[in-house]
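User: Can you predict the 3D structure of Oxidoreductase? Sequence below.
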Amino acid sequence: MRRVRYESTGGPLFVEQAPVPEPGPGELLVRCAAIGVTLPVVRKVTEAAEPIALGGEIAGEVVATGEGVTRFRTGDRVTGMCFGHGYADFALLHEAMTSPIPDGADAVDAIALVRSGLVAYGVLEAARPAPGEAVLVTAAASGIGHLAVQLARARGAGRVVGAVSDPGKADFVRSLGADDCVRYDDDSWGDPFDCVLDAVGGDLLTPAVAALAPYGRLVAYSSGGGTLKAYDLLVGAKSVIGFQMALIARGRPDLYEQWRTELWRLFAEGALKPAVHAEFALEDAAKAHAAIETRTNLGKVVLRA
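Assistant: Sure. Here are the predicted C-alpha cells for Oxidoreductase:
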C-alpha cells in the first residue's frame, strides 16, 4: 500500500510502499477514502524533534476487524481518529474512536464534519453563550472555525464575528452566517464580546482577552501556546477556559457520542454545512500541508487515498 512519510524535521513528505497493517484487539482495518489534514499534525512535522506517524482523521470502509470488536463489521463505512499512520491507503482505528457514517453522507462529508465539528461543538459547550450574546471566532475560515461560526449562529448567538489573517477570507466567513469579519491586526474588533473562541493562541491571546466584555469567557483550544497577564483577567472578571477534545473522547464517551449525533442531525437538516477547501492526492500531501501552513484554506483540507 501507499503511505506518506518523512525522515527529518520539516520534511520533505514522500510516498513509500508499506505492508498493510494487521488489526489488533479492538482495532479496525479501514480502506481510506478520505483523510483530514490538521494544523497540529502540520506543526509536528515542522517542529517535532523526531519524525512522527502522520495520523489524524480518516474515513472509509472496514475491511477487517481485530479480536473483541463488536460494534462494526466488514463493509461498514466509518470515520475516526487514527493515532498511527493515517496518510495511507489502509489505516487502523480503535473501535472506541470510531463512528459510523450515516446514509446520505460520504467520506469527505465525514472528514469535514466529524472531528472538526466535535471540536467546534465542544468549544461552544465550554463557552456556553446565552441566547443573544456576542461571539468572536478566531481562525474563522479554518476547518474548525468555519463550523464554529455556524454552530454559534445555530445556538442563538445575537452577534457572530469571525477573525482572520487575510481580508480575502471575509466574504467566505460572512457566507457562513457571520455578521462581520475582522482582521487580527485591525485597531479594533468592534463592540466587546461575551465569548471568544480562540484557535490561534500566541500573541493573539492578549487582544482576544481585551476584546471580552466584563465577565466574558475566552475558550483556548490552540496548539500555538501563549501567555496572559492575570491582571488583564482580574480587571473585568474575565475567565479563560482550556479545551481539549481528546479528554472528552477518552473520559466522556457518552458526551462524545451525544455531540456526534447532534452534528449529524444538524448536517441532515442543512443547518451545518461543512466546506472543503481542496482535495489532494496522497502524492500531493506536501501541497495539502502548504495550504494549512500558509493559512490560505477556506474550510477543510482533505487527502484522497
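The mean pLDDT is 94. The domain at 118-245 is CATH 3.40.50.720 (Rossmann fold).
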